[in-house]
Amino acid sequence: MKLVATLCCALVLLTVGPVWAGGSGLNVIVVVNQNSTNSLQLGNDYCQLRGVPPGNVWRLTNWTGGSVTWSRSQFTNQLLNPLLAMIAGRGLTNQAQFILLSMDIPYRVSEGSGQNSTTSALFYGFKTNGAPVAGQASCSLPDPSSNSYAYSEMPFSLAPPDTAPTNAFLAMMLTDTNLAGAENTLRRGVVSDGSRPTQTVYLEETGDTDRNVRYWEFDNSVFENQVIGNLAVTRLNSNNTVFTNLAGLQTGFANLSLATNEFLPGAIADNLTSLGGYILESSGQTPLIAFLEAGAAGSYGTVVEPCNYTQKFPDPVDYFYQTRGFALAEAYYQSVLNPFEGLVVGEPLSAPFARPGTVVSSSLTNGAVLSGLSPLRFGFTAAATNRPLAQADLFVDGVLFATMTNLPPAPGNVVSVTLKGTPFAYTVQPNDTLATVAEGLATVLDEQTNETQVMAQPVGDRIELQSQAVYVPGSNVTVSAGSVPGSASALTTGLTAARPACLDTVATAYQVIRVSLADNAPTNAPVPGDWLQLNIIKTNGVSVTLGVTNTTAGTSLNTMVGNLLSQMAATPALNSTDGVVAADYDNYNNGTLIQFSLFARVPGLPASQILVTLTSSTNLEVTPSESTPLTYNLSDLLPRDHLYVSSGLNSLSVNFPCDTTSLADGWHQFTAAAYEGTSVRTQTRAVYNVQIQNTGLTATLAVGSLATNTGPYQPVQFLVTAGVTNVARIELFSTGGSLGVITNQPSAGFTVYPTNLGWGWHPFYAVVTDSAGERYQTAPIPLLFPLITLTLAGAPPTLTWPAALDHQYAVQATTNLAAGFQTVATLTATNNGNLQWPVTESGQAGFYRVQLGN
Fold it and tell me: Where are the domains of the chain?
């Protein structure tokens, strides 16, 4: 039997992976630690799966100080400043929005008593702590740490944080305690795109009172999601954290357990606790990495004791932003008001609810030859009528080349809405944006709030409608919206309503009650004679009065309040559906402050009209001190609807005269990207590999060392040969940019070491410049490092080749080279090492090769 093992190296043009949300691989800068093989491989795999151009990779070359903490000066001098210089030098300033830190890079920045996360320092600069709380320097909320991007519902490029001292970035770290875990997070994030999960998101109110402080934000997130049709987001009162196939979880515990299949791909999940950001340290608390290892695409935790300020942790409204279609990084950074101590970890582009459109070109095909002024024609189609396409850009070799068309709201267009039968309209003004159109229409609506009893609040490209009519069901507050060209020649402005009528709340009205000892109280406990009286007037006018009086010295305030609530629980008139119930009972300041909430027993706005009056003796203080309805959460009770402003067309035709003379002759990758005309900006893309020919300059790139079996780690030789002799410069490029330059020679050899670039796919190409300044770019040669060098030995004979963790390899065979190869086995590497496959002898000549499967 004749067996032949071949050296496999795929010489094909690379294309990109899935593309969604307000960003894509074109907008990501991948930072790798040159001194970490894991960081290099993870970064390379991220680039392959997310279509990150090779020029968007930057190497942290001199850091050997570990993966936990670096000083502010080290962060600034080794990462921030060189990174900014690289972005500017490679012409990426107008497109770089996301930073992906590929493991083995410090996640904490320290200066004196101040500690920030590396992701937040890249997002909006290092923030110095303000006045400490209770001697804890990190327990503060300095004014400059407020994030103006939070709650904006704006494209990040139009609303970066206003305190950022330099460029602002949506920075995330992709990491784990091991490479396999980080690779799993990456792949689950990618496959989540467009999955539109309907499984549950739990917003969990727990019994851990110190970490349970986000529960008051839950109703808003549930309500917002229900308005736009996502019924999966729901509240849960529980101390359980072990679930299966959740689309998200927000909870609060120092320590928790999670199932290995807790989350679906794309899930956002986090825990409000002090030290969740101690991802590679022993803190005694569950690190955020646990959520990623349970399947989540992203998580969040603080890298220093934050105290339980809700502003320092994600608001559950991040699930609403995700439902709208924002990418994970966008959803997270919009939901944290003061993120300076928070580390964001995961896959930033994961976007389960994004909906890209489609694109065809009548002028481009792969391999097309272009010259001179070449007309490029694209036809983009939106995914839905409320997701028109507003702008189309052309990228060449991953760098923004030109905006081919842009359709903002057209001056003269008229957007209109009818509320409860009353029409309102706003005419688009010159230079209006989506946000200013929303502001203008909201102003028109609010001028008639007395008539409609509907408030209008603009938020980015959206208007939140809230009905104030207490006893009018939301279904009676009808809403319709639309737009017409008006005085403009074309209609490019859209207005849609989320629902045909306002939606009634599922939230329950409540009022927060506080009872404390007065400052001038004679002791630190109630004295005999101190009293509390609670009066409740139900919506049917029935009044119920309860009271307790302290008769014994040494009685605690906790006991007095507890006795009062026991009376309330035992009163039949308050146990009916129009009564109240006490919950969320907390004891503070060594028992000198008691807080609880009185809830209506049924959800909805009408029940909020129950009146509560609590009075006390002079040694005690109560708030509220006057008769008040159960309207502490009024905004969560008012029936809602949304209006969405958009721009663009559902069918966007682009005719762009491309001046190819400004580009080097030779091979280029053209990417046409259209953006959804909302704040979400989901991309619809198409990629074409073309050839430009305007001069007689030519050149070739060849791999020199593939003819011999030199092993996977040996240097690879590249030879560049120009078609002319007057050559001024030859430069070789691959992942991370330039690999070397040779001047004044018509041909040049370059040596590349696989260990410098790391395991994974790498596209190589060369640019030749002649003495007249003309340039030629060679066709790319993508290589997989380590090179798949096959050996065949043993009895029975066995194929062996080097493999990269979590990569899939296809063994292909044939007995007739003219007939081509067929896949006979597929194997996945479980570590960085060798894979083996035993050959089944058939008694005739056989030829074998191995190709990368993913």
Answer: 25-346, 358-407+649-692, 414-505+639-647, 517-632, 699-785, 790-852
